Amino acid sequence: MSRQWWIKQALAVGMLAGGVAVAGVAPAWADARVEAAVRTVEADQPTDETAAAKAAAAEASRNWVLRLAKSSMPVEIRTSAWNALRSARGDEAIAEWLAPGGGFDAAKQRIRDARVRNRLFCERVVRTHPVEFSPETRAAAERALKGTAADQAAFVKTGYAEAQKRDRAVREADTKHKLEVAAKDRDFVSSVAGHDPGEQVRVAAQWAVRPGAMDADVVEFFGYGWMTGATLDAEAFRTRIAEAETLRHAALSRLLEDAVAAEKAVKGSSDAAKARAEAERAWQAVSGHAEAARKAWLAEREAAMAQAENWKNIAKAAKASADELWKNIGRSADENERNWSQEQAEASESAAFWQNMFDKAQAGEKRAKG
User: Fold this and answer.
1) Which DSSP helix (H) or strand (E) runs through 17?
2) From CA 81, how far away is CA 88, in angstroms rounded?
3) Measured on CA atoms in the order 138, 142, 147, 153, is the torsion positive or negative?
4) For 164-211, how does the pLDDT look when each residue is reduced to its tens digit (9 = 90+)?
């Protein structure tokens, strides 16, 4: 496989998604502060339904930022999220972080910096290239990570390709442990190329069985290409939902402010019918937004479910095969299934929140009608 092709692919797809192998670790103070904030919200629960809707939205926004802070997103996003959570300004700081041009967008902008992208590429290589298959490449990536930004840039520019060449040369010279590619293995990769739920896995598989491809290309697909594609697909998924849900929470806050203000304006209005109509339209905007968000999360749940089932089947195939070729992907398949199952569960939780917000908005419409 073309080393420079892999570099460009990984940098392009992973530019915002990151590739941090270890999930974010919460600072010692973080959970205590968040728990205290939640207790405060619970203690101050308003009695009227409009204020209750705002409180529920504010709590959900805080929980969303907490989810990002504890995620495997790039450290730039996780650190920024923790800073918003520990702010003494509470919900105001959370709202600013979620708003367009706020902390989340600023963190994404930092990820676009070439130095950050180079670091993320090195981290991804360490995560996806097992030492048993790619010892030179893995070691070179680890050295780059311990070095300077210039070291990481050099690894991306030439070091990765050079290390991969050394690994391939060693594999080709080791006739005793040479991995054989059977027709069934090539056929399997061809099936992956056409039907895998992950776009980047399909791309990697297509490269491995392209016209003129050799057995070494199929071997490298099993050795690191499959896992690299899978990692890029997971990163793209997490980035997509992070960006979309952050925008949805920011918009929800604005729409609720409008709806609550419109409902309050009904009292004492000189034109009650007009004021009620405006309040009804405002709550309809909230319900429409919530319903669209719920449907989006249901679609993401289906995507995560498909991935989880796919990796479950891959894990079974790897365990049933005595072929050495399957060992490397077998090591990762179970973890991938667990990660996608977690994404599925979290998508269900998010869909439930938006259903609840839709119900509150529907109640607001009924109140506005009188």
Assistant:
1) none
2) 14
3) positive
4) 999 999 998 887 678 888 899 999 999 999 999 999 999 999 999 999
Nearest CA to 354 out of 252, 211, 242 is that of 252
Which residues, other chains included, contact 326 with Cβ-Cβ below 8 Å and sequence gap of 6+? 222, 317, 318
Residue 156, sorted as left (phi over 0), alpha (psi -120 to 50) or beta, turns out to be alpha
Using alpha carbons, list the distances in angstroms from residue 361 to 98, 235, 277, 287, 348. 21, 33, 14, 5, 20
Residue 45 above 70 pLDDT? no
CA-to-CA separations, 370 to 54, 174, 262, 267, 366, in angstroms, rounded: 21, 81, 14, 12, 7
Which pairs count as long-range contacts for 63-67, CB under 8 Å and 24+ apart, including other chains? 64/98, 64/245, 64/246, 64/249, 65/94, 65/97, 65/98, 66/34, 67/346
Q: How many percent of the chain have pLDDT more than 70?
A: 87
pLDDT band of 18, cuts 50, 70, 90: very low
Q: Which of 364, 365, 368 is nearest to 51 (CA)?
A: 364
